[in-house]
Every structure is written in C-alpha cells, then in structure tokens.
Amino acid sequence: MRSAPHHQAVEWLAAAAVDPRACKREWEHGASGAVLLPSGRFWDVLSVPEEIGLFALDALLRLPLPMPGPTLADFGAHRIGFFLPPDPGSRWVGQDIRYSGKGSWIAVPSPRRTTGTLRWLVPPDGHGTLHLPTALEVALHQATEMLSALVNGEQARPVGRTARPGPDRGLLN
Q: What's the CA gap between 139 and 160, in Å, rounded?
C-alpha cells in the first residue's frame, strides 16, 4: 500500500516528465528505477561534489528553517544535487559546481528510493518544497569553510557563526 506523501511526491515529480505515466511505470517496473526529467520547469538542480554537498546538507538541517528541499545523491558520480526554484537568470560560480536549468535533464529515482547509488537524501515532499537559494548559499559557504579547516588541520569555526555573504560576494549572482 502506498502512503499519501509518497503518492504526492510521485505525482509532483512525474508531472515534470514528457510522459508522466511512462515515468511512473519506469519507477515501478524499470530495470534502473530512474528516469530522465527536464530541469527548468518545476525546479533547477545545483550539483556539487559529494563532500561539500554532505556538509552543506548537514548545515541546512541545522538551520532554524523548515525541512530543506529535495536532495539527491549520486554516489557513483560522487555528487549531491539540491533542487531549487527555477531561475533562468541564475548563475552559481564555484569549483566543480554544475547548475542544471532549462534545457538540462536530471536522472531521478522514485521518491521512495533511499538506497542504491542514485538515491534521495531528502525526498520530495509532494508539495513542491524546494531549497531556498540564499540558505543553500550560506550552507555551501559553511561547508567550504569546514572542509578547508579539516584539510588544513585548523580549528573549524562552529557552523552557526559564519557570516552571511552579501549579494555581490556570494556564489549566487
């Protein structure tokens, strides 16, 4: 039996597909359990290296905000994808950062999939909740700082003490 939140998440994700019924069939019966869905209509995806993405997700979960948006892990490619509101004018700048907007396609597993190489760390809620770009930007800055401190053997500052970047100094332009 399917739960209502899972059903809503399936419907929300499948609505982005060219053929929503075929999308749902592939999730249920396909060999890979994943489908290609277009970005830029309901969401864009910011993909970052696995290490920084996991630290950033941890930082997002610690912020006094509602649950973060959908977060997809591709452990085969060592990438974490954050689903953001579509923004055709958005530019994210950083080492090994990939932004998928209109014209891009994303491999997406069923919202129920929480195991395997391609899986959800935070599955979609079915209501269209997405990451807040400013919160993700702050979390990525904090993650970069924490990783830098770990690599350099320095004392890392607590996550909550990182200053919020100004609009002209941040990753989001």
A: 10
